[in-house]
Design brief:
- By secondary structure, the protein is α+β, with helices and mostly antiparallel strands.
- It has 2 helices and 6 strands.
- A 6-stranded antiparallel β-sheet has the order 1-2-4-5-6-3, with helices on both faces.
- The chain is elongated, with a radius of gyration of 16 Å.
- It starts with 5 loop residues before the first helix and ends in a 13-residue tail after the last strand.
């Protein structure tokens, strides 16, 4: 029997939905409300707050995939499309893009819905690269799912 490749494991995980319930824009990992404590002097939500939420969402997915500890090693392609306002409902979706021997690429899409609106608008997206770590903080192999 041939050894399973990381892409085979990724395909099987997607088919089974083992990392969460798949939505059109990915798996809903975080839904939160933007609060006044998270604002800049202009009254908009800090980009850093939003990026930290994205890192939490990607880390959540990375933990599910690697079945353990991991660390962010790169964030790629982030661009803010519109501001997030106090009171907006912010939803973060994660999509597992690829799995290597020790690393994962996770795409995060962020949408915001004004408090009394029906429709959300895309705020930003980015790819987060995580490396699975062992108890000593060294890279470790990601187990097959």
């Amino acid at each position: 029997m041939a050894e399973e490749t990381p892409s085979d494991a990724l395909t099987r995980a997607r088919e089974r939905g083992v990392h969460g319930r798949q939505q059109k824009d990915g798996i809903i990992v975080i839904r939160t409300i933007a609060m006044p404590a998270d604002t800049n002097p202009a009254g908009d939500i800090f980009g850093g707050w939003l990026m930290s939420q994205m890192d939490l969402a990607a880390g959540n997915m990375a933990g599910r995939v690697s079945q353990g500890r991991g660390a962010t090693v790169a964030v790629e392609g982030m661009q803010f499309l519109r501001p997030v306002k106090v009171g907006d409902e912010v939803t973060l979706y994660a999509t597992l893009r690829s799995v290597g021997r020790t690393s994962m690429r996770i795409h995060i899409d962020v949408w915001a819905r004004s408090r009394f609106a029906q429709d959300a608008k895309k705020v930003t997206d980015a790819d987060f690269v995580f490396v699975a770590l062992d108890e000593n903080g060294e890279p470790r192999a990601i187990p097959e799912t």
